[in-house]
């Protein structure tokens, strides 16, 4: 809205929707370089409820909503993102040593959690669980962006092209769909990256992304399609879907 704040609104098809109060986004400026990339979106736990990060009076807290708004945790640690992983959750949070990734076996965040990364000079974002149990994440620091794979240790994946990594989503075969931008261009590319070898192929080189934090690639795990908006202002920026093998089709959306 005009106050530069955002609210979280849930709309069911054909329904009136529900607005969650005070779910204000934050730039997390205290987190240092790369803070504007920190995830702040909602993460569905089930069709009935979701996690999201709430910012109120300069304090971030993790919330759960299923018709009733509840605090998941208390304290002053800054939470930047939460993503479901099996029966537990992955959380990026600042515990005084920088914004790092933690794994919790329980959704109430009981216990200290397992620290997965320790990178005080980077901000981790776009946390993406992979089918084989590993976790992919983008690390943003003063020197640029890196693709990190969290196994027993953190492994940096070397990519054959120099790009700025923006967001990730897992494909059904374990590869990653990646929104990226070349350093000397203003256009956005959709890449497919093998997190094991770093092998990279470019699917799209002329996509449109909205201003602000790049959304995750819109991947359908059931059908394999990846949906995006092509940058063609003369045609109204059409919606296109593409398969990882390059097959694509432009969608015609009806209006009423």
Approximately how much helix is present in the residues? under 10%
Tally of alpha and pi helices: 0
Q: Over all CA atoms, what is the radius of gyration?
A: 18 Å
Strand proportion, as a percent range, falls in over 45%
Structural category: mainly beta
- Quick check: average pLDDT? 76
Could you give the distance between the termini? 26 Å
Poorly predicted ranges: 1-6, 20-39
Number of strands: 22
Shape: globular
Largest sheet geometry? 8 strands, antiparallel
Order of helices and strands: EEEEEEEEEEEEEEEEEEEEEE
Account of the protein in words:
This protein has 256 residues and is mostly beta strands. The protein contains no helices and 22 strands. The strands form 5 sheets. Strands 15, 16, 17, 18, 19, 20, 21 and 22 form an 8-stranded antiparallel sheet that branches. A 4-stranded antiparallel sheet has the order 3-4-5-6, with no helix packed on it. The chain has a 4-stranded antiparallel sheet with strand order 7-8-9-10, with no helix packed on it. The chain is globular. The model is unreliable at 1-6 and 20-39 (pLDDT under 50).
